């Protein structure tokens, strides 16, 4: 067990079982013992690897996609270039480098990073030595008087979720409590009707489990209101599907699945993204949403294969093999190409972002 586990046990003994969302938030963001406070998550020596860490091509194409969308909307003279959950800053650094030659883009861009961890902010600053980003704890404090062009890559999967199991008498919420021996374990609340889940009564049966993410829809609302009102776009890139169906809560440590309750604060906790819920939140806020598109298809539409061929000309041996493997990993249906999806948000009066269909 961990120091955080001891704190959580004391809290549960004092106030009773907590929701899965409360448990995830504590494990990931506790100021002293949280995962993002204490662990080196990314890379071969960490717990997981994201697309920007696999190849520079990913960030380059995302940057050119953003720049083309900016041009398509008349190249506004000021805009907020936003990344949510920038990690080590690899993606946004590649975006900045790839757009350096786009006339007027850097002069118009004001860089804003949504990052709650002071430790990660330091890594992002080191990756962006020539930039002067403004950091935000939440999306609610992003500028609302200029267009917003935003990226969220593997951000929404780490937001706290709640789980509900359908019961003949309503819904039972998955809670985190204590076993007789003091271990943290899952349990269920008493059944009760939940008006917000009435729409799921038509497509579920008793015993079915669904997940909700209020944090995710709130963030989409903040982005979509700005895009609908001022212009811009957002790219949401993550793993998940169009509809929440079943238990997708998981923990990863050292690139392998582990028990999410064994060592709180030492493993990455995630869940699949319900893109339908995000798209619905965007539409309610007055913003248009694209069709959900596989990452591999999206990157191919943006020109990843010609870019890969161009880079390959200067490589040989192990470097060339690694480059080919990276291209495959990002695009192939058996790897990240179909596991990861892309959703675009944009003003309904404008064209969708490049690579995506309305």
Describe, in plain words, how this protein is organized in 3D:
The model has no long low-confidence stretch (mean pLDDT 94). The chain has 14 helices and 17 strands. β11 (250-253) and β12 (256-258) form a beta hairpin. It is an alpha/beta fold. The strands form 3 sheets. Strands 2, 3, 4, 5, 10, 14, 15, 16 and 17 form a 9-stranded mixed sheet that branches. The protein has a single domain, classed as Rossmann fold (3-Layer(aba) Sandwich). α5 packs across α6, α9 (214-230) crosses α10 (275-284) and α12 (304-312) runs antiparallel to α13. The longest helix has 17 residues, at 56-72.
Largest sheet: 9 strands, mixed
Contiguous runs where pLDDT drops below 50 for at least 5 residues: none
Instruction: Assign the CATH class.
Output: Alpha Beta
Globular, elongated, flat, extended or rod-shaped: what is the shape?
globular
Number of strands: 17
CATH-level-2 architecture: 3-Layer(aba) Sandwich
Supply Rg.
21 Å
Do you know the CATH topology? Rossmann fold
Q: Summarize the amount of helix as a percent range.
A: 25-40%
Mean pLDDT rating: 94
Structural class: alpha/beta
**Could you give the distance between the termini?**
48 Å
Tally of discrete structural domains: 1
How many helices in DSSP terms? Answer: 14
Strand percentage lies at 15-25%
């Amino acid at each position: 067990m961990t120091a955080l586990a001891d704190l959580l046990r004391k809290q549960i003994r004092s106030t009773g079982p907590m929701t899965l969302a409360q448990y995830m938030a504590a494990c990931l963001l506790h100021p002293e013992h949280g995962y993002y406070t204490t662990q080196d998550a990314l890379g071969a020596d960490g717990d997981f690897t994201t697309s920007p860490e696999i190849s520079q091509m990913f960030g380059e194409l995302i940057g050119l996609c953003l720049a083309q969308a900016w041009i398509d909307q008349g190249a506004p003279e000021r805009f907020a270039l936003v990344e949510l959950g920038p990690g080590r800053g690899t993606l946004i650094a590649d975006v900045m480098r790839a757009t350096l030659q786009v006339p007027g883009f850097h002069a118009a861009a004001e860089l804003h990073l949504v990052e709650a961890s002071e430790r990660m902010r330091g890594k992002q600053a080191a990756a962006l030595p020539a930039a002067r980003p403004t950091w935000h704890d939440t999306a609610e404090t992003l500028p609302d008087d200029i267009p917003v062009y935003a990226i969220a890559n593997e951000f929404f999967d780490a937001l706290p979720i709640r789980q509900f199991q359908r019961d003949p008498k309503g819904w039972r919420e998955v809670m985190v409590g204590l076993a007789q021996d003091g271990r943290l374990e899952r349990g269920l609340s008493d059944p009760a009707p939940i008006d917000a889940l009435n729409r799921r009564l038509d497509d579920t049966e008793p015993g079915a489990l669904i997940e909700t993410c209020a944090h995710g829809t709130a963030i989409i609302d903040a982005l979509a209101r700005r895009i609908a009102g001022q212009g811009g776009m957002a790219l949401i890139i993550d793993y998940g599907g169009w509809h929440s169906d079943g238990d997708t809560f998981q923990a990863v440590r050292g690139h392998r699945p582990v028990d999410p309750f064994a060592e709180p604060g030492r493993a990455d906790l995630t869940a699949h993204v319900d893109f339908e819920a995000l798209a619905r939140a965007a539409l309610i806020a007055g913003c248009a949403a694209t069709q959900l598109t596989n990452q591999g298809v999206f990157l191919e539409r943006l020109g990843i294969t010609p870019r890969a061929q161009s880079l390959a000309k200067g490589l040989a041996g192990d470097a060339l093999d690694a480059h080919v493997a990276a291209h495959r990993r990002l695009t192939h249906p058996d790897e990240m190409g179909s596991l990861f999806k892309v959703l675009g948000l944009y003003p309904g009066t404008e064209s969708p972002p490049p690579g995506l269909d309305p």
